[in-house]
Amino acid sequence: MTFGKQYDEYLSFFEGELKRFCAEMDYRPPVLCESMRYSLLSGGKRVRPVLFFGALAHFGGDYTKEAGLAIALECIHTYSLIHDDLPAMDNDDFRRGNPSNHRVFGEANAILAGDALLSEGMCLLLKEGKKSERHLRAAQYLADAAGAKGMIAGQSADLLYTGKTGGEEELGFIYAHKTGKLITAPIVMAAILCGGDEEKAEKFGEALGTLFQLTDDILDVKGESAKMGKTLGKDREEDKLTCVKVYGMERAELLADRTAANCHAHLRALGGDGFLASLVDLVRTRDN
After folding, report:
1. Among residues 85, 67, 57, which one has the least CA distance to residue 19?
2. CATH code of the region 3-285
3. pLDDT band for position 232 (50/70/90)?
4. Mind giving me the DSSP string for 25-69?
5. Nearest to 121 by CA among 75, 182, 152
6. Quick check: 219 and 233 in contact, CB under 8 A?
7. What does the CA dihedral 261, 262, 268, 273 come to, rounded to 10 degrees?
8. CA 139 to chain centre
9. Phi-psi region of 277 (alpha: psi -120 to 50; beta: other; left: phi over 0)
């Protein structure tokens, strides 16, 4: 099966499971469900659940049995996007080509939608963790990746260094935490569930997370808003600490190429390439 067809298979399965999950939401008042569903079902590449499924297949697992963890991952990721777009954070009016949650439902309702999605994600992790000791460890890994030791620490550092001088060390921390933790998590979770090499999986995930944020920073300068589905040029406007600010565009592009090569090296150490190797190439060459 070609990479594109395999990606579509994973994506189609996930979208079906996510729609069923959203259809079962029955919370009051109705605006809460509406705002949660709005962001969960707004499309996107679903990189994290697809990466989780691809990693499960790589380690010999059955991805169709792990929809619960994949939905938990997407709930947590989506809550972070809703809150990122708020006026107090990145203040963005668009996400995935649609008006941001707060532009549709108001700032207060958007905050609550994000809170609810984080809680839903954690409830799913508790439920999935009851299946086995491995499921519990995988759930714990994702919970840690999402919290003060992971994504939130990166978001805090991103705010701290906005408009200030920072270098490679500060940028590396932001990359490793703000983006890297939720890219690394699905790979390590798959390794935990299947008895794979967790240390090597983590190294691959960390490199892929760095690559993802490198390309995101580059695309904020040279990408197209219509393809990216969000407002571009905001990093420079707000004086964010990015690879382009630290290294300049030419060096940032070279660093992205070297990081992609590093991803492939870590993947080979895991015993193969295939779908995951093509996913690395997609992250490096993407335009959205």
Report:
1. 67
2. 1.10.600.10
3. low
4. ---SSHHHHHHHHHHHTS----HHHHHHHHHHHHTT--GGG-HHH
5. 75
6. no
7. -50
8. 16
9. alpha
The per-residue pLDDT of the chain, averaged, comes to: 93
Instruction: Read off the pLDDT band of 190 (50, 70, 90).
Output: very high
3-class state of residue 149 by DSSP: coil
Give the domain ranges of the chain. 3-285
Residue 24's CB is within 10 A of a number of other CB atoms, namely 7
Kindly tell me the burial class for residue 283, based on how many C-beta atoms sit within 10 Å of its own C-beta (0-12, 13-18, 19 or more): buried
From the CB of residue 199, how many other CB atoms can be counted at a distance below 10 Å? 11
Omega of the bond prior to 29 within 30 degrees of 0, cis?
A: yes
Smallest CA-to-CA distance from 91 within 118, 110, 119 is with: 110
* Other beta carbons less than 10 A from residue 200's beta carbon: 18
Quickly list DSSP for 69-136. Answer: HHHHHHHHHHHHHHHHTSTTTT--SEETTEE-HHHHH-HHHHHHHHHHHHHHHHHHHHHHHTS-HHHH
Beta partners for residue 98, in sequence order: 95
HSE-up of 190 (CA within 13 Å, CB side)? 31
What are 7-44's pLDDT values in tens digits?
A: 999 999 999 999 999 999 999 999 999 999 999 999 88
Structure token pair of residue 114: 């994000």
Q: Is the pTM of this model over 0.85?
A: yes
Evaluate the CA torsion angle 285, 233, 98, 32 in order and state its sign.
positive
